[in-house]
């Protein structure tokens, strides 16, 4: 019999119960017992839901109060020395210290989990690192489920992925992969204990199979699974997801383990090869239900690969599952009372995906629930043909885009001259990245307006007053290029998404980003267009208040798509192109409204890079093209800026230059301008604003610090192409510190001008 299988379930709760409980505990408003009770209730209800849906192999230890990678560090006793851990049991308080930092110890670094918007805590390794079994969570949760009548399949991050994603933090020259010899025995010990407790399966997540692997990683994988496969009384399943296996297919299929899981959404092309290669008794879990997106599965289409695997391996060696853990999708559609039935009928969140898995597992064994299948087929047809998705004018416009649309009229040098003539800026022009502090007052006005307690007129007047104040302040301080402050925006993607056709928003569609931070990504369901100008009224108003140039402020097409759930019925690049055209309209309208400079933020440009290097070129080509399409509609005199929040540009600098923005602002203050290296080496041809003020901290940098940073920049870049600005927008900061820091920043720019 084919088994209905799950890899992981969202831990946050239908109503973000986990967030409320952890934050209350951190604040001291709730004790440990109440936190633990919330955790236990979430697990109980998640297991219950899965059991009721008919999932036969249910995961445990997929729950976490913060992050599964952090849990793994605790489980194997890898707590950095600075947290002064007693060395015995790494409890939840130890985990929270690592995640959040203490007065004595800075928090562990956090970074993105593969190409998701989920962040994990980076394991740290030093010469002193010694692993040992130090956590009970995985065992406790197994027992907990057992008491509920469910023999779960415990899940943990596999040893190769664990070592690969960690970093060496001392300067010992340690080879982190050499730690495998110490780490693997701890994994073996865990497997043995779970076997003794009665677990039948143990899932080890190794998504690094979706990456380009080096020899050291391959060695660790071989060693680890040779050792783990030897543990008696428990079956090991290695789970691969987030992409194709490609050159790793041989290694993967030759692992001597009892089960393998593959991502049959992104890796659908490889299912047959994997099944053909599988020898002996190995079970294959085929992840046909998309764990990364919110669309209903096309059940009829999903049965195809399942039937093929069944015919090769037999149903006793087949499991059906989601492509990856369901952690990356919202919990349930049941709460979405705001969405209409037609739209709801296209979606499946985690709970609904469980039903799809169960249907498919039964269907492949011949028990096709015809009613479910035909309802699903109708939903597929309805969505494919819906007038809400297809906008002929958008399709025509995309098809009519010409080479010229991707270009400014003249090359940068010529544009720069014209812009200089028009803008008449001093050396080291001073500007900011766009947003000013989103005070409680600003957020309240927006909430009141949304609720209907503040009229449109009242809200508009409020925002205008904020703009007046911001303009006055910038003039008084001596800024050369002003911004309106973005007071009207809740979020740089949501604001535009709400005004564009083709976007939808859920009410409870939260997904964990990190710890107690959840995001509610918009859904791009149809052809995107801009019914009306989105920012013009605010920018135009701001410009009317001053003789200084005002910078219009927009979010770029890659970021608009990257931070959303995206339609799966056309290539991502096509969706990005539609968004680019919509934003291009706004750029043109801003120019017509008298804005001499327009900034198009691409915060997620680097984030969109594919996991495999071989795929970078194609991505960078359409991503840079989409930027040029967005910016290509304006005259040479109009100055186009872009902004990117980070940092590492080494491997994408050519593409950045290819975007051909007149000016790019980047984050450089924390790295002491080191991050400029890529620009210097490449001879980046256009203007740059290297951030001189670290906006991630409330600390006010002294004038001299910023002078030093700017001097460093002038040593490596032509001074006439340098701008002065902070690292990023100021919306998360308070006014008091911002005012001080900006005064210092202006003083620093003046000092450089004087020295020239
Ligand atoms: N213009 C945006 C702001 O200032 C840019 C933010 C970002 O790129 N993260 O807030
Ligand atoms: Zn930024």
From TrEMBL:
Which positions does UniProt annotate for Zn(2+) 1 binding?
643, 645, 667, 728
The UniProt annotation places Zn(2+) 2 binding at 658
Which residues are involved in binding L-methionine?
433-435, 486, 601
Q: How is the cofactor bound?
A: Binds 2 Zn(2+) ions per subunit.
Cobalamin-independent methionine synthase MetE C-terminal/archaeal domain span:
428-750
- UniProt key word Transferase: yes
GO MF terms, alphabetically ordered: 5-methyltetrahydropteroyltriglutamate-homocysteine S-methyltransferase activity; zinc ion binding
Residues annotated as binding L-homocysteine are: 433-435, 601
Task: List keywords of the entry alphabetically.
Answer: Amino-acid biosynthesis, Metal-binding, Methionine biosynthesis, Methyltransferase, Transferase, Zinc
Return the similarity comment. Answer: Belongs to the vitamin-B12 independent methionine synthase family.
Q: Which HAMAP family match?
A: Meth_synth
Q: What is this protein called?
A: 5-methyltetrahydropteroyltriglutamate--homocysteine S-methyltransferase
Task: Please report the organism this UniProt entry assigns to the protein.
Answer: Porphyridium purpureum (Red alga)
């Amino acid at each position: 019999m084919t088994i209905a299988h799950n890899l992981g379930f969202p831990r946050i709760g239908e109503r973000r119960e986990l967030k409320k409980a952890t934050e209350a505990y951190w604040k001291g408003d709730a004790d440990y017992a109440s936190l633990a009770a919330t955790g236990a209730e979430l697990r109980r209800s998640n297991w219950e839901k899965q059991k009721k849906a008919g999932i036969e192999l249910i995961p445990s230890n997929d729950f976490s109060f913060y992050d599964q990678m952090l849990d793994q560090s605790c489980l194997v006793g890898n707590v950095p020395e600075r947290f002064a851990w007693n060395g015995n049991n790494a409890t939840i308080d130890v985990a929270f210290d690592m995640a959040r930092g203490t007065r004595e110890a800075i928090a562990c670094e956090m970074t993105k989990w593969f190409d998701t918007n989920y962040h994990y805590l980076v394991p740290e390794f030093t010469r002193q690192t010694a692993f040992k079994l130090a956590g009970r969570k995985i065992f406790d949760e197994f027992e907990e489920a057992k008491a509920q009548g469910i023999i779960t399949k415990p899940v943990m991050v596999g040893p190769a992925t664990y070592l690969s994603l960690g970093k060496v933090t001392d300067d010992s020259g340690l080879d982190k992969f050499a730690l495998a010899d110490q780490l693997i025995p701890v994994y073996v010990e865990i497997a043995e204990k779970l076997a003794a407790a009665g677990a039948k399966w143990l899932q080890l997540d190794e998504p690094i199979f979706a990456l380009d692997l080096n020899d050291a990683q391959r060695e660790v994988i071989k060693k680890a699974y040779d050792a783990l496969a030897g543990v008696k009384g428990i079956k090991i399943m290695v789970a691969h997801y987030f992409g194709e296996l490609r050159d790793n297919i041989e290694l993967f299929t030759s692992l001597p383990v009892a089960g393998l899981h593959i991502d049959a959404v992104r890796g659908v092309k490889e299912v047959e090869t994997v099944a053909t290669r599988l020898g002996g008794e190995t079970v294959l879990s085929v992840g046909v239900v998309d764990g990364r997106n919110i669309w209903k599965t096309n059940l009829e289409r999903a049965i195809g690969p399942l039937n093929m695997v069944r015919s090769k391996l037999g149903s006793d060696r087949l499991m059906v599952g989601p492509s990856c853990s369901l952690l990356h999708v919202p919990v349930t559609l049941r709460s979405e009372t705001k969405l209409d039935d037609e739209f709801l009928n296209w979606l499946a969140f985690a709970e609904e995906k469980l039903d799809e898995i169960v249907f498919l597992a039964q269907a492949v064994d011949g028990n096709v629930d015809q009613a479910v299948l035909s309802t699903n087929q109708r939903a597929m047809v309805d969505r494919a043909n819906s007038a809400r998705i297809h906008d002929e004018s958008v399709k025509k416009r995309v098809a009519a885009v010409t080479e010229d649309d991707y270009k400014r009229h003249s090359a940068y040098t010529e544009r720069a001259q014209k812009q200089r003539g028009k803008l008449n800026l001093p050396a080291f022009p001073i500007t900011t990245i766009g947003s000013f502090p989103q005070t409680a007052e600003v957020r309240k006005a927006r909430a009141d307006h949304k609720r209907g307690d503040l009229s449109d007129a009242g809200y508009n007047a409020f925002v205008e007053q904020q703009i007046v104040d911001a303009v006055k302040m910038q003039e008084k301080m001596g800024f050369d290029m002003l911004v309106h402050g973005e007071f009207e925006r809740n979020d740089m993607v949501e604001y535009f998404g709400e005004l564009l056709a083709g976007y939808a928003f859920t009410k409870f569609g939260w997904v964990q980003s990190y710890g107690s931070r959840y995001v509610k990504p918009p859904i791009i369901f149809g052809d995107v267009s801009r019914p009306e100008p989105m920012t013009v009224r605010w920018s135009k108003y701001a410009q009317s208040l001053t003789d200084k140039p005002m910078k219009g402020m927009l979010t770029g097409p890659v970021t608009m798509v990257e931070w959303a759930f995206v339609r799966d019925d056309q290539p991502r690049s096509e969706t990005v192109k539609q968004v680019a055209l919509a934003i291009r309209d706004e750029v043109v309208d801003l120019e017509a409204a008298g804005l001499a400079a327009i900034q198009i933020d691409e915060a997620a440009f680097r984030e969109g890079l594919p996991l495999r290097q071989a795929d970078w070129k194609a991505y960078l080509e359409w991503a840079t093209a989409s930027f040029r399409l967005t910016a290509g509609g304006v005259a040479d005199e109009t100055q186009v800026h872009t902004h990117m929040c980070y940092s590492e540009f080494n491997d994408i600098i050519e593409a950045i230059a290819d975007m051909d923005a007149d000016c790019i602002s980047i984050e450089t203050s924390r790295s002491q301008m080191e991050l400029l290296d890529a620009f210097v080496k490449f001879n980046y041809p256009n203007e740059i604003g290297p951030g001189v003020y670290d906006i991630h901290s409330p600390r006010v940098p002294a004038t001299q610090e910023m002078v030093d940073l700017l001097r460093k920049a002038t040593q490596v870049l032509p001074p006439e192409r340098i701008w002065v600005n902070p690292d990023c927008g100021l919306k998360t900061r308070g006014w008091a510190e911002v005012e001080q820091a900006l005064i210092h920043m202006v003083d620093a720019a003046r000092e450089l001008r004087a020295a020239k």
